[in-house]
Amino acid sequence: MVNHASTHRYANRTHNDRGPGTFKKYGRNVVPQQQFNFAHAILTRLWEPSAWILEAALLVEILLGKTLQAGFIVLMLLFAAVTGAIQAWRADKVLKTLTNKLTLTVAVKRNNQWQHISATQIVPNDVISLNNGELLPADVQLLDGTLEVDESSISGESRTIRHQAGDIVYAGTEIKSGHGLAVIISTGKNSRSGKTISLINQSAAPGQLQKLLSKIIDYLAILDTVLVIILVLTALIRGTNLITMLPFLAMLFIATIPIAMPSSFAVANSVEAKQLGQAHILVSDLSGIQAAANLNLLLIDKTGTITTNQPKVVALHNFSKYSDQALIRWATSATNQQNTSVIDAAILNYARQQAIPVQAPAHFESFNSQRGYSEGTIMANRPINVKLGAYQRLYQLDHNAPKLTNQIDFGSGRTVALLINDQLVGLFIVKDQPRSDSLQALQNITKRGVKVIMLTGDNQKTATSVAKQVGLTGNVTPFNTLTANTDPQQLAGITEVVPENKLAIVQRFQKMGYVVGMTGDGVNDAPALKQADVGIAVQNAVDLAKRSAKLVLLTPGLTPIIQILDSGHRVYQRMMTWTITKLSRTAELTMLLTFGFLIWRSIPLSLNAMILVAILNDCVTLVLGTDRTNITHHPEHWNLRRLSKVAGVLAIGWTTLGMGVLYETTRLGLTPGQISTVLYCYLIFSAMLTILMTRSTKPFWRQRPSVPVAVAITINCLITVSLSLTGLGIDKIDLSYLLATLIIVLVMGGLLTIIQPHQD
Description:
This is Cation-transporting ATPase. Helix 7 runs parallel beside helix 21 and helix 21 packs antiparallel against helix 24. Strand 21, helix 20 (about 545-550) and strand 22 (about 550-555) form a beta-alpha-beta unit. The protein folds into 4 domains: about 1-35 and about 100-190, Calcium-transporting ATPase, cytoplasmic transduction domain A (Distorted Sandwich); about 205-255 and about 570-755, Calcium-transporting ATPase, transmembrane domain (Up-down Bundle); about 280-305 and about 435-555, Rossmann fold; about 310-430, Calcium-transporting ATPase, cytoplasmic domain N. About 50% of the residues lie in helices and about 15% in strands. The chain is built from 26 helices and 22 strands.
């Protein structure tokens, strides 16, 4: 219970202690972020397992006196380290920008008035109001009230701690329940946590795509291991010097195993996160963007998302001997006058419209979803206990309630019960209107193949009316009537949903195979938002809900969800291009080199050429995040079998043609160095064409790539042509061999475009 008389004394005292220089003295309630060190990022990438393999190969080349080859390995090392550092810098920049955009707000007593300000502006001795669902913005001492606090962020133990007046509560902890006033004692770097709350989760659990890619890495590693064993055994049988083969074998692993692939995808996601940030959508978990492409079921809260969340009292039913004015005044005592909810605001505005003064309670206990009501105590001739909350929860306290309300149309709006000393004395009818953009937004979401289901605590009649207004089709069913056989595709809404039900609903549909999205705003929405594949906290969500969600909307309504879907589809298409290209060219390279060694007793590609292949291919993948995409209007699916099928057709086609190239160049009597150069040209041309082929479902000649992708491909081809004709770093070949290689690649590309399986 909060004693308002005592809290006013605390508030006035502590407020007067704040001098004009207080903010200047303490500064902003933030902790300076660790600056990205580019040089350190490069050095770190030079000291990891993938670099060790190359560094060992470099040492072997130096010992063998092969200066040119050693130089190429050094180039490969620096290229990998610098590009990796650039990717990390880009991701760090984007995530820090998003973190800075999303700050907590705090109810603080300033100039004898309660106001909401940014948490960065609070200073020691400020008095703030605390409510369930909030995150502590600084270290505080509780002045009054009782809080249940989750301190796992500082203790590591996921259990709630009960705090009362006089206790110290630390920054970064989560208020699970309760209400109180507190005085700020430490801010910024001086707080125990040493940091302000960041809602950007930079170490989120991997999404479906990243799990898929991890499997791909494992398969490629197995493939390389098998091929290396075959090559080594063959070399031993033939008496080949294994020392001379070590650099080649090392490069084979580096060129084929995408060790940095997970971070590359994180960067690609962060680019899209930046775009969403500019559209006032903050991304706290990058896997949410990936999952948006697969989303096929969206659960949406009615209040505040579909509706305006600005309910108004449209009627008061008085069942008592007291006047309407008395009931309204008493009802205000059970509202949170410091951190008003939408229902609190509706009651208070109703009182103000009728010039009824607000009643300050002697004691107050804020709304608790488990009880379903808030409570105030007025000290008169005798204490008057006032309860305000959902009729479905409060009618049980008064056995006469059903008789009093048997003529009430509960379908006319949301019913808020008023009890005086546990006797039902009145019902407020509260209505909230659908947002003007809800109908169009829901239609657009549905057109994307996403089934939308409305969740509400309202009764069936009210919910059905709202569903019809916003174009939702299907049945509107109470939660307790759902069965294992209930088909989500037949539902327009689920009614009589309490917050605790939402997690069960999300889990139920996930078990049925749906990729589930969820919007929410309350404390008890947090578990469901965390569980959902795409958890979305709406604009007015409490801090705990924002922290649990993968995406946070900074503007009201449903329209931003369309942009989330678009981002997911763009990431999907770009990543599919990368993945299919990587799989196909890896299989092509390893099989050509292995068969070449087994058939012609020599490795058909020089170490220099292999390093060039690895560098030039990666140069293109660095800009794939900018490529043009086509937004598909249906949910996508990450499917390794389908990806392998598409990549397999490409790999078989390119490998078969490559073996023909090796055969023909050997038959024509080209030197091993010239054969290596022709194969190098073939690998580059086929890889660039594969990118163009896989980036679109249309024939590659009918859809242009983005300018950066086109420029990267052009530069790679020009470098390849220049090196081949000049003999710089590789053996020189005639123009005729170069043109012949280009022509057969284009012909095969056209054939593979026709016969390859459709990616969708």
